[in-house]
Amino acid sequence: MAAKAVVLVSGGLDSATALAVACSEGYDCHALSFDYGQRHVRELDSARAVAASLGVQHHLVLRLDLRKIGGSALTADIAVPKGRSAEAIGEGIPITYVPARNTIFLSHALAWAEVLGAQDLFLGVNVLDASGYPDCRPEFVAAFEHLANVATRAGVEGGSRFRVRAPLIALDKAGIIRRGLALGVDFALTWSCYGPEPDGRACGLCDACQLRKKGFTEAGLTDPVPSARP
């Protein structure tokens, strides 16, 4: 019987590739997504489509209302920054950072893993071509792995040794796209935009769109997802 893994799947190209990595390593993947009060739920449609396309049989979508906390352009009535320069995107922590989001998500993934008897948690964080989020760094991944093994019954009693897997953490967007394609990811199913156009197309101007565009350009490929500003 294949070992089980819980994989955080947001619907973006990073998490889609992380899921593909876990599947390629032979895990029985349990995908976990969140309807957390984000600005749009288009990404959840993508998460479901990606999970189905990769043959995942277990996909759980949990409802959390982080809008009651706010503090981010994704969970409060704060404008999504658009048209920022590459230099600006690479400096500081942007207003699209959702406070403690990956800590919250991984905590739920850890709880599910403990129930399932899974030892591996996968997430698609990376530090190159990223928006400077503090919960996407190797230090965070290592710290949460330590927490997982001291804060759970399975970890304390020795029933499990939890591992937090971030297989894309040292790749840039072009590298992630190449790896995803090699593993069969259909990037037409993914979604990255923080502020879609009224007609449903990606805006092409938010940080996520610009980083995505950079990745496809550097990979020598055309993004299959329509954008208002290709």
Q: What tags apply to this protein structure?
A:
230 residues; alpha/beta; Rossmann fold; five-stranded parallel sheet; 36% helix; 11% strand
In short:
This protein is an alpha/beta fold and 230 residues long.
**Secondary-structure arrangement, i.e. CATH architecture:** 3-Layer(aba) Sandwich
Q: What is the share of helical residues?
A: 25-40%
CATH topology: Rossmann fold
**Average of the residue pLDDT scores:** 95
- Strand arrangement within the widest β-sheet reads 3-2-1-4-5
Number of domains: 1
The largest sheet, given as strand count, sense and whether it forms a barrel, is: 5 strands, parallel
User: How many helices?
Assistant: 8
Radius of gyration: 17 Å
CATH homology-level superfamily: HUPs
State the order of secondary-structure elements, H for helix, E for strand: EHEHEHHEHHEHH
What amount of the residues lies in strands?
5-15%
Describe what this molecule looks like in 3D:
The protein has one domain: HUPs (Rossmann fold, 3-Layer(aba) Sandwich), CATH 3.40.50. A five-stranded parallel β-sheet has the order 3-2-1-4-5, sandwiched between helices. The chain is built from eight helices and five strands, in the order βαβαβααβααβαα. The model has no long low-confidence stretch (mean pLDDT 95). By secondary structure, it is of the alpha/beta class.
